[in-house]
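Trying the structure run again after the queue cleared.
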Amino acid sequence: MSSITTADPADTAISSVSLYRAIWRWHFFAGLLVIPFLLNLSVTGSLYLFKDEINDTIFGYRYLVKPEGGTLSPQKLVDLAVTAVPGSMATSYKDPASPERSAIVTVSKDKVATQVFLNPYDGKLLDAVASDQEFNYVVKRIHSLALFGDFTNRLIEITAGFAMVLVVTGIYLWWPRQQTGGVVTVRGTPARRVFWRDLHAVTGAFAGILIFFLALTGMPWSSYWGANVNSWLGSHGLGYPTQLWDDVPKSQKVTSDILPKVGWTVEKAPVPLSDIAAAQSKKPVGVDVAIEAARAAGIRPGFDIAIPADAAGVYSAAIYPDDVAGQRMIHIDQYSGKPLVDLSYSQYPIFGKSIEWGISVHQGQEYGRFNQILMLATCLTIVLSCVTGVVMWWKRRPQGRVGVPPMPPRRSVYSGLWIVAAIFAVAFPLTGLAILAIVALDQVVIRLVPPLKRAFS
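Done. Tokens:
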């Protein structure tokens, strides 16, 4: 004779409540810490989505020109830019993408880079602005908080990780549990807390996948995770095809050192050297010939070309358009005018292709206006989630206390969550360590310090 033992319903209920409360506390702490950063990411990200439109309207006076006759040679425009900033040296030239576009020459003086905007038809100076003060560059630096240093940039990396945690825990909290509202509909009126709870839950749940996507595809730019992943992929030939550099001498510089805009996958790719021996018998071919060589190779209009800084340098032409399929980079020997390395998106390994595609979609570029609007809607949803989260918390906050969700009845539920946090720490170290620190603070410090226990109960 055998017997079947079933779990005690009360015991199961306590375990379920414990898990729910533990995840609710995680969700609360994560949201409380990153709301200011998420608002910054959403607002600046929304602006950056429309960088081209901003350039063509607010700054159209320096980006747009009226086609009039023939254009001056690139070398002539480079010379005019250097003259406009006395004592400078030209470092790169941007080929106009269309007849209505200005030419942009970047010059350097005392280690300060300046973008010089010129009318390619008559050489008229349209504007000159320090590269690190250009509007969209500043917006991007504020977006990542890199403008304020490495520490704040690391905080943004932690925020991106926490955003993924918020999505996953938020969907768990939203998941239908026999309630009749708050799943796809919003109950009550703005005067009631349930209205803000439902608005927060429903919008977050339905936009969760897009929010998670934005957080994940923003990680490549992070100073710790992004830099280490880029280095690992590059060293294993998974980011860009390293074999293309096997038969050419390489300098100590990387692509991001010489070009104003590079793709994430190749920003740490080495820059080859020109044939030094040829310097004894040949003169550099010059900007005009190098540009013609790049065009003859089939690179799209609108590319940037880096100008060699010394006798061993190369001309490096590169373009990173809205659609990733058009990415191309060509390093050209400055004495022969022949390509040394020619790399296009189609040659990237699968990881490089995937990350570049994700970055392009993240920036609203890959699928035109639809992509822009979809990413803008996601940014606005994040703003809405932040606002509704604060209002919901304020309405439920008890007098004299923080209003943290209650501790779970059983502390043993944290065992599984500690494992989850540890796994997350391996995938995203900075975020994982921050999670472990918060859980430790919640389970040790807050529990053992009576004033904190009362405030956070």
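Residues 30-49+145-219+369-455 form one domain. Worth checking whether this holds up in the mutant runs.
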